[in-house]
């Protein structure tokens, strides 16, 4: 249950941050990955579905943060420089950016979790 609550907060933060880049990304990604809000609210942090992972990948790609299987350093750093804890988040990004998953969806999800954990560690 605790994992679910933490994940719900993480997901809410991610969706809110993506709102800055355009509400249409969320809708487009939900359509593309065939997920709805009720599914996003039910997910488990320790056992995410492939649909959820691909939803996160879609948000990263549409935001310009992820392209052709790699993170776009310039775009990510530009975004992080606007955050309240920018030094902490930039350091976390440097620690997290080389994480690789089994596919692009898994890679972006692992990066997302790494960054969110770093954000909540302070």
CATH topology: Recoverin, domain 1
Binned strand content: under 5%
Shape: globular
Low-confidence stretches: none
User: What structural class do you assign from the helix and strand content?
Assistant: mainly alpha
The overall pLDDT, averaged over residues, is 78
Computed over alpha carbons, the radius of gyration is 13 Å
Largest sheet features:
2 strands, antiparallel
Question: How many domain regions?
Answer: 1
At the first level of CATH, the class is Mainly Alpha
Subcellular location: Secreted
Signal peptide: 1-16
Pfam families: PBP_GOBP
GO molecular function: odorant binding
Would you mind describing this structure in some detail?
- The protein is mainly α and 122 residues long.
- It has one domain (2-120): Recoverin, domain 1.
- Helix content is 70%, strand content 3%.
- It is built from seven helices and two strands; from the N terminus they run H-H-H-H-E-E-H-H-H.
- The chain has a two-stranded antiparallel sheet.
- Helix 1 (2-21) crosses helix 2 (23-33) and helix 2 (23-33) packs antiparallel against helix 4 (50-62).
- The longest helix is centred in the N-terminal third of the chain and has 20 residues, at 2-21.
- The protein is globular.
- 26% of the residues are buried.
């Amino acid at each position: 249950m605790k994992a679910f609550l933490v994940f719900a907060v993480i997901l809410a933060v991610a969706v809110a941050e993506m709102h800055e880049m355009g509400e249409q990304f969320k809708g487009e990604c939900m359509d593309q990955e065939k997920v709805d809000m009720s599914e996003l609210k039910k997910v488990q942090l320790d056992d995410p579905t492939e649909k959820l992972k691909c939803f996160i990948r879609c948000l990263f790609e549409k935001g310009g943060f992820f392209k052709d299987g790699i993170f776009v350093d310039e775009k990510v750093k530009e975004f992080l420089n606007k955050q309240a804890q920018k030094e902490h988040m930039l350091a976390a990004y440097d620690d997290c950016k080389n994480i690789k998953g089994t596919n692009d969806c898994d890679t972006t999800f692992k990066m997302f979790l790494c960054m969110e954990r770093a954000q909540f560690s302070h």
